[in-house]
Write a structure and sequence with these properties.
By secondary structure, the chain is mostly loops. Helix content is 10%, strand content 11%.
Length: 149
């Protein structure tokens, strides 16, 4: 796993923002990054490469991961309220015990994604790929997310 300092991560996110805006910069490649337990609220990781990234116990509330490659990522016990995963590739991701209120999974590839004991309320599941997906859900509300660190 690759571990980043707060300054390194901030720089990667800034370069990614510039890349998204066609102002130079470069695409965020956080493959095999350990971002566990980090407060990542409202980050813009659209189209980022997040393969095998560990987001366990992280707070991604309000973040945009649309069209990102998030295959084999770990979101175990993460707070994913109001997150956009539209058109994202979440194949083989672990979403077990994640808290997900108002999450957008439209057209996301959820092949073999593990939602075991996840909390999904008011979540958009429009035409996602669900073959071999583990879905065993619990009800919840937004207040069930942990306090960010």
């Amino acid at each position: 796993m690759n571990i980043y300092t707060k300054q390194e991560l901030r720089s990667i996110l800034e370069q990614h923002r510039l890349w998204l805006e066609n102002k130079g910069g470069e695409r965020a490649i956080l493959t095999r990054a350990d971002l566990s337990g980090i407060d990542l609220q409202r980050v813009d990781l659209r189209r980022a490469n997040l393969i095998r990234t560990n987001f366990s116990n992280s707070n991604l509330t309000g973040s945009d991961l649309s069209d990102a490659d998030i295959t084999y990522a770990n979101f175990n016990n993460s707070c994913l309220n109001d997150v956009l995963f539209q058109d994202a590739d979440l194949r083989n991701a672990d979403m077990s015990f994640a808290k997900m209120f108002n999450v957008n999974l439209k057209r996301a590839d959820l092949y073999r994604t593990n939602f075991d004991n996840a909390y999904l309320d008011n979540t958009a599941l429009i035409a996602p790929r669900l073959e071999h997906t583990i879905i065993k859900l619990r009800g919840t509300n937004k207040s069930d997310c942990f306090t960010s660190k």
